[in-house]
Amino acid sequence: MSAKPDESRARSIVDLLAGRAVVLVGIMGAGKSAIGRRLAERLNLPFVDADTEIEAAANMTIPEMFEIHGEAYFRDGERRVITRLLSDGPQVLSTGGGAFMNDETRSRIKADSLSIWLYADFDILMERVRRKANRPLLKSPDPEAVMRALLEERNPVYAQADISVESRDGPHDVVVDAVVSSLHAHLLAAAGNSLHRPQGAADTASAPEPTGK
Ligand code: S3P
């Protein structure tokens, strides 16, 4: 029996990833873990949550880390743990909202993986983050102002991810479908570009025409 279209597309994505990880980036409440877990199931890849791994390595929760050692300690652990995880090969890796802001982490993610920015409407983000009180950055008298400031600072950086997908409210599977489609299209286009590009040509679709004919 031949494979179902979903299965053959998942296999094609994993082949085109050629051993790289898929890394989800985006602000708190974007749904990186919920979508990441389901995406991993679809692709038959392991799912890894960077924040869970950081907590295991430090043997304490993220709120404890912030409270006892401060944010810098957490950021250092975050950078080291993500570097280690990226060397583990094919997987779906969800990262905490600040991870992609670190220059070294971002360079590694760009070099070793396919990155996906999950973004969402402000009101949806706030509604989601209000459900859990485990985010030290939002323990503020005005979490909305903190969220707005973080979005302003971070969105231009998240936008450097390879793919952007809106994390709408509603069934997770709808967002996962959108991620799978974008991921497949991106990987196919990249494979097509590298097949057709003469050796040494720039990696851009609109390289200027040679002059002086
Ligand atoms: C943070 C986001 C959190 C967690 C930590 C810091 C951030 O992860 O890593 O509280 O800087 O945005 P989520 O994005 O999974 O909530």
Q: Report the sheet-strand fraction.
A: 5-15%
Strand/helix succession: HEHEHHHEHEHHEH
* Topology, number of strands: 5
Query: Radius of gyration from the CA trace?
Result: 19 Å
Q: Mind summarizing the main beta sheet?
A: 5 strands, parallel
Helical segment count: 9
> If you average the pLDDT, what whole number results?
91
Unreliable runs, pLDDT <50, ≥5 residues? 202-213
Secondary structure category: alpha/beta
- Ions, cofactors and other bound molecules: shikimate-3-phosphate
Q: Reading side by side through the largest sheet, how are the strands ordered?
A: 2-3-1-4-5
Helix content: 55-70%
User: Looking at the structure, what is the overall shape?
Assistant: globular
